[in-house]
Amino acid sequence: MPATTPTKSGPPRFFLRRAGAFIIDSLIYSVLFTFLVGALGFLVPSLQPALGTSFLNSRTCSSTDVPDIAGEIESLWPDTSGDGLKAQRCIVDSVFMAKKYFVVVTESRKVDEQSSETRSVSIQTDANGTPIFPSTLATRLTSLLDIAILPLYFAAATGLFGWTPGKRALSLIVTRQPYEKAPASIGFYVSAMREYLKFWPICVFAVIQFILSGATPEIHSVAEGVALLETMGAPSRALGLSLLSGSATLLVLFVWWVFPMALWRGRMYHDAICGSFVVLRN
Description:
Helix content: 40-55%
Structural class: alpha+beta
Number of strands: 6
Strand content: 15-25%
Low-confidence stretches: 1-8
Distance between the termini: 40 Å
Shape: elongated
């Protein structure tokens, strides 16, 4: 009888479980961060016009009851040669946060017989329709902190309990003792290092975007907002760098996340560096 060579096996990948846990935890974190930003706006009302999140909000626009500022925007509009200007009042209603009001004037024009382009100006107002020009720094910081604090959420849960809510729901645990019946948690310090190693491509991308967005000029008047129309279509070094960094981040994420999770068994790069394992809970 011919001899058979035993196949080498390792711990399971848990690809679907880890992906599902990540989705659950990301949704939970989005709710918590939205609540945190809302609480900050409540404690510091002057920051409310500049604060915002991309989660748990709705945007409704209407062509009725448009404030008078729309007429000022239209009077300053350069080279009106399209199909006319359309003015709307848009309301962004976010959970845990005050409503935000915008006047949006849009122009659509044909470039040729098969394509067209749209230009628009959006000016934020108060509830009475008076234009306001909040600092963009708070908005940029909110976007940066949204990413920078994300690893801490994972680290706190993993360090204290060995699992995040998503991993708990899918019966996973992070430990350095994969074969123990009751494996111990890796601790907060190791967990924080593990999570920032896991998310470093996204964190670096967020920092780059924060720096590049600083090149966007501050708007202090309606005239300055309309004047940006003349430069929006011009080539921008900041825009080029932003697109380049985004493409590079996607490539790094594939190498850092997708590739090892698909081919390795049980561990990713950050797990190997920190000596941790993701295993099923007993």
